[in-house]
């Protein structure tokens, strides 16, 4: 019967544990009234190292209301449960009486947005608990979706856990202001070593943290007991029978997994209410002065928005598709330039890619906001945006994994959890799905073959990767084809779940090393690019913010070498660097992977300047055109080498190139098949560039001879004499 209690749907009604009218009974199933006993039927049937099995029943045709009468259980059928309406903030205010009762409207009304435990708007000082097993399991760790460190017992564990001897554990949140609480979301403990979660809890409220009243069940008037979790990770939402207006809210675990501890992570759904007697200054409202469409966009809404931007700014935008997802959704790209649809000689190509992990939704929305902003500001004549669009060709891919996003969107921002929707529909993590070019490069370097025998750039795809049965997602293939078609120079891959910018290499050079500093030959450039984004990001520069999960990146400027964080074989960043000319970093945008809609305006303000400033870094370094000295035509695929940097770039089909470099003096060589190489010095200053560094190459005699013979022309006397001298030297 206890299993029946936990089989209720995620959106389950509160359960009465109190006296009521006698009915059909099942004896000896209820625990003693004076103890908070673990639920024995939830214990794992095998070794404790195996996670308990279970399934999410969702909303079902029938559910049960369970009312305990001493040691008797009453089971009554009730009507089909329905999913609550989306969380919005439009609700009439509620008034509390001195006794704590509520005068609320009778009709069913929608709930409220999250208070901000997951997004860190709620500070650590606002969280208290009856007890904690350790600092790493303190109340400040009781935040929805918080992730633990690798070791249990450190400072960064994965939940709040009460002491085992705590007979009446509780976790308390101080909203600091009068607030209307409408619901609770809970998870168990995030840990690779243990299984701990609460299976039921009560909720209490207070205005002064001394006098408390509980959430009551409507039918019985008894304290409501809410069904909680049946696994560590799935978020479970309980809406309160009646929203309560108070300053403090307290969760009181009643039962938890047998053999485990009372541990939970939580988010509180709450709406602010006006209070003329409030003595505490309120935090500024989450808002933006830009009139953008601040909401989450599913696939249909995303297409509609992109079309609207294109119609509003037809002269600077173009929508195109680079392929389809596994389920057939198109991967749409918005191109923004003064001449969309064509590569202009000397104009660099840049891109933003978002939604590689479908549940990391903030990047998707920021890219959609960016295209709206660029269109609007260009029409207004903003000089910064105008220059950006006239000197750069920008490509915006808001959703690389639309299938995963649709899964996450269907669950909702607060209920999607940490991983649902991350992978594509085949179960492939797209950020581990690109070809591993690091290993063949490093093996060739160890054998002394780079760069004379094996190039240090534009490494080809391995044979195994091109086979028809290779495990390569259609989304990955589409992006690789896109990279090969367009000469991208700069890119950022937008993720979520942390606040840090990571740069290549993402894969450790030592095989099987979990983490190891593994810089590229262009480490100074990547550190510059990462610092530019992190240094202009409001959230990353907030000195008062706490770490998201288990690492504090602020002491290193909120940037990190990807491999020194955790190894990622087959990442898009490494592939982009080794297979193309493009320099790419990963931006972790927010602690919350899927922020609530009400937080999107603030997230845009946090990232707006960073997004623009990062794109402008494509002007850093040198740029130019490599031409044939005789014809003045551009030479495609010419190699640009910089002394002291073991990584080259190549020219586009028109002979133009861009080489990102930090300020300094460089010796640069341009070479091409059939031409004599040319070397010159180029100085990069701190002034806005790029610094022009053009080359004119002269054909070798052999190349000139080949071209003349191929065209059927006579060999000029000077070329004939030169060839004869070369033959004489060889003899």
UniProtKB/TrEMBL annotation:
**What are the entry keywords?**
Carboxypeptidase, Disulfide bond, Glycoprotein, Hydrolase, Metal-binding, Metalloprotease, Protease, Secreted, Signal, Zinc
Q: Name one GO cellular component term.
A: extracellular space
Q: Which residues form the Peptidase M14 domain?
A: 295-618
Q: Which residues form the signal peptide?
A: 1-20
GO terms assigned for molecular function: metallocarboxypeptidase activity; zinc ion binding
Domain named F5/8 type C: which ranges?
110-271
Active site residues per record:
588 (proton donor/acceptor)
Q: Does the keyword Disulfide bond apply?
A: yes
Q: Which cofactor does it need?
A: Zn(2+)
Q: Name one GO biological process term.
A: proteolysis
Q: What is the first-listed, main subcellular location in coarse terms?
A: secreted
Annotated CDD domains: FA58C, M14_CPX_like, Peptidase_M14NE-CP-C_like
InterPro entries per UniProt = CarboxyPept-like_regulatory, CARBOXYPEPT_ZN_1, CARBOXYPEPT_ZN_2, FA58C, Galactose-bd-like_sf, Peptidase_M14, Peptidase_M14_domain
Out of the domains of life, which is the source?
A: Eukaryota
Indicate, by first and last residue, each region the UniProt record lists as having compositional bias (Low complexity).
84-93
| Location of this chain's protein in the cell | Secreted
Query: Does this UniProt record's set of keywords contain Metal-binding?
Result: yes
**What's one Pfam family here?**
Peptidase_M14
What the protein does comes down to: May be involved in cell-cell interactions. No carboxypeptidase activity was found yet.
State the family it belongs to. Belongs to the peptidase M14 family.
In its UniProt entry, what is this protein called? Answer: Probable carboxypeptidase X1
Q: Which organism is it from?
A: Crocuta crocuta
From which lineage does this chain's organism come?
Eukaryota, Metazoa, Chordata, Craniata, Vertebrata
């Amino acid at each position: 019967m206890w299993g029946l209690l936990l089989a209720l749907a995620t959106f389950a009604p509160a359960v009465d544990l109190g006296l009521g009218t006698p009915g059909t009974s099942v004896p000896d199933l209820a625990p003693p009234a004076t103890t908070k006993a673990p639920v024995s039927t939830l214990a794992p049937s095998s070794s404790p190292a195996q996670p308990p099995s279970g399934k999410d029943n969702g909303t079902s045709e029938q559910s049960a209301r369970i009312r305990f009468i001493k040691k008797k259980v009453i089971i009554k059928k009730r009507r089909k449960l329905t999913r609550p309406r989306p969380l919005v903030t439009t609700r009439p205010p509620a008034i509390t009486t001195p006794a704590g009762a509520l005068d609320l409207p009778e009709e069913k009304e929608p709930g409220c947005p999250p208070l901000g435990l997951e997004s860190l708007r709620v500070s650590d000082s606002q969280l208290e608990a009856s007890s904690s097993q350790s600092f790493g399991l303190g109340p400040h760790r009781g935040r929805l979706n918080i992730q633990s460190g690798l070791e249990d017992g450190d400072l960064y564990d994965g939940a709040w856990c009460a002491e085992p001897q705590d007979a009446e554990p509780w976790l308390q949140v101080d909203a600091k202001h009068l607030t209307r609480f409408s619901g609770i979301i809970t998870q168990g403990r995030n840990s690779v070593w243990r299984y701990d979660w609460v299976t039921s809890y009560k909720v209490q409220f207070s205005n002064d943290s001394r006098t408390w009243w509980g959430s009551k069940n409507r039918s019985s008037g008894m304290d409501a007991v809410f069904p909680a979790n049946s696994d560590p990770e799935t978020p479970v939402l309980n809406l309160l029978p009646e929203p309560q207006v108070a300053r403090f809210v307290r969760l009181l675990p009643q039962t938890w997994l047998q053999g485990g501890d009372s541990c939970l992570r939580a988010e509180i759904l709450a709406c602010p209410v006006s209070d003329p007697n409030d003595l505490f200054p309120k935090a500024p409202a989450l808002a933006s002065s830009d009139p953008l469409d601040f909401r989450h966009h599913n696939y249909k809404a995303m297409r509609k928005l992109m079309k609207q931007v294109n119609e509003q700014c037809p002269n600077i935008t173009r929508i195109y598709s680079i392929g389809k997802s596994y389920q057939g959704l198109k991967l749409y790209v918005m191109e923004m330039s003064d001449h969309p649809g064509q590569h202009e000689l000397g104009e660099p190509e840049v891109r933003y890619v978002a939604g590689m992990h479908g549940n990391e939704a903030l990047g998707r929305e920021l890219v959609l906001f960016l295209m709206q902003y660029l269109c609007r500001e260009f029409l207004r004549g903003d000089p910064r945006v105008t220059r950006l669009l006239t000197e750069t060709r920008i490509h915006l891919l808001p959703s690389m994994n639309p299938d995963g996003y649709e899964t996450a969107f269907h669950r909702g921002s607060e209920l999607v959890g940490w991983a649902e929707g991350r992978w594509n529909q085949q179960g492939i993590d797209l950020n581990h799905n690109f070809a591993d070019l690091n290993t063949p490069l490093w093996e060739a370097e160890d054998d002394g073959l780079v760069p004379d025998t094996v190039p240090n750039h534009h490494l080809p795809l391995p044979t195994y990767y091109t086979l028809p049965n290779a495990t390569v997602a259609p989304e990955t293939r589409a992006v690789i084809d896109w990279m090969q078609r367009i000469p991208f120079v700069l890119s950022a891959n937008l993720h979520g779940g942390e606040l840090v910018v990571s740069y290549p290499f993402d894969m450790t050079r030592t095989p099987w090393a979990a983490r190891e500093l593994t810089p590229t030959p262009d480490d100074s450039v990547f550190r510059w690019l990462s610092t530019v984004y992190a240094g202009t990001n409001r959230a990353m520069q907030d000195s008062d913010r706490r770490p998201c999960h288990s690492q504090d990146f602020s002491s290193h400027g909120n940037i990190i070498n990807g491999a020194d964080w955790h190894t990622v074989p087959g990442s898009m960043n490494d592939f982009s660097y080794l297979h193309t000319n493009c320099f790419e970093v990963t931006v972790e945008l927010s602690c919350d992977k899927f922020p609530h809609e009400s937080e999107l305006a603030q997230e845009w303000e946090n990232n707006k300047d960073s997004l623009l400033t990062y794109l402008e870094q494509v002007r850093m370094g040198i740029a130019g055109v490599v031409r044939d000295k005789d014809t003045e035509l551009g030479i495609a695929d010419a190699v640009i080498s910089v002394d002291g940097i073991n990584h080259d770039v190549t020219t586009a089909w028109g002979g133009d190139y861009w080489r990102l470099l930090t300020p300094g003096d460089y010796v640069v060589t341009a070479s091409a098949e059939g031409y004599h190489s040319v070397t010159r010095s180029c100085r990069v200053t701190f002034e806005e560039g790029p610094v022009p560094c053009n080359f004119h190459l002269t054909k070798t005699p052999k190349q000139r001879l080949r071209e003349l013979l191929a065209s059927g022309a006579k060999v000029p006397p000077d070329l004939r004499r030169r060839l004869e001298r070369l033959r004489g030297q060889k003899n």
